[in-house]
């Protein structure tokens, strides 16, 4: 065994080599109000349809920061609040507002038609986009992004119980941030601005 091999074995055993390699990452460390999830092994991609019938993947949004929220158009409070906050975030980004793309992925494809999704997202901001899939695709993307959702009967209809996190990707298409529903638009904008620098 060579000296370099022995040194690598010792450094790996001490847990130092992974730290040294992490330091070589081109992503600069984030100081955020949300959660820095750089290097997460989930949220790697999606393949869903837009209102125009075109299918979209993560690659289609490279070059922009991408904020994704999972919800449904008949949501009484969390979803409209999250999208209204996204409008405020864009306003706070000023000249960089166009560098942020907001996606709303439905967890209720049975009721959220492409037309409804488009009208819903456009009511907040014409640049926001609603994506949808089949029931199986919805389940798969929710699993990939570690999103919880469940149909809850309410009289003759139903509502959806679901996670209330927003995920943010950097301009290279890498998942970097998780923003809680409790964060202010100002805090979110400060976090996202770091991905645009």
From TrEMBL:
The keyword Isomerase does not apply. It comes from the Bacteria. Residues 37-197 form the Thioredoxin domain. Keywords: Copper. The keyword Membrane does not apply. InterPro entries: SCO1/SenC, Thioredoxin-like_sf, Thioredoxin_domain. Belongs to the SCO1/2 family. This is SCO family protein.
């Amino acid at each position: 065994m060579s000296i370099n091999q022995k040194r690598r074995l010792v450094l790996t055993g001490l847990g130092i080599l992974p730290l040294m390699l992490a330091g070589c990452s081109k992503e600069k460390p984030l100081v955020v109000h949300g959660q820095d999830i750089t290097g997460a092994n989930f949220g790697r991609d999606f393949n869903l349809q837009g209102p125009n019938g075109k299918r979209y993947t993560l690659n289609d949004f490279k070059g922009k920061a991408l904020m994704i929220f999972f919800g449904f158009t008949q949501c009484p409070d969390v979803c409209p609040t999250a999208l209204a906050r996204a409008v405020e975030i864009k306003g706070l980004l000023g000249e960089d507002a166009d560098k942020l793309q907001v996606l709303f992925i439905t967890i209720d494809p049975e009721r959220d038609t492409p037309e409804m999704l488009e009208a819903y997202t456009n009511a907040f901001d014409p640049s926001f986009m609603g994506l949808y899939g089949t029931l199986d695709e919805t389940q798969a993307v929710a699993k990939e992004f570690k999103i919880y959702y469940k149909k809850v009967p309410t009289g003759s209809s139903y509502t959806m119980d679901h996670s209330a996190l927003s995920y943010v990707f950097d301009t290279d298409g890498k998942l970097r941030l998780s923003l809680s529903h409790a964060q202010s638009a100002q805090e979110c904008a400060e976090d996202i601005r770091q991905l645009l620098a």
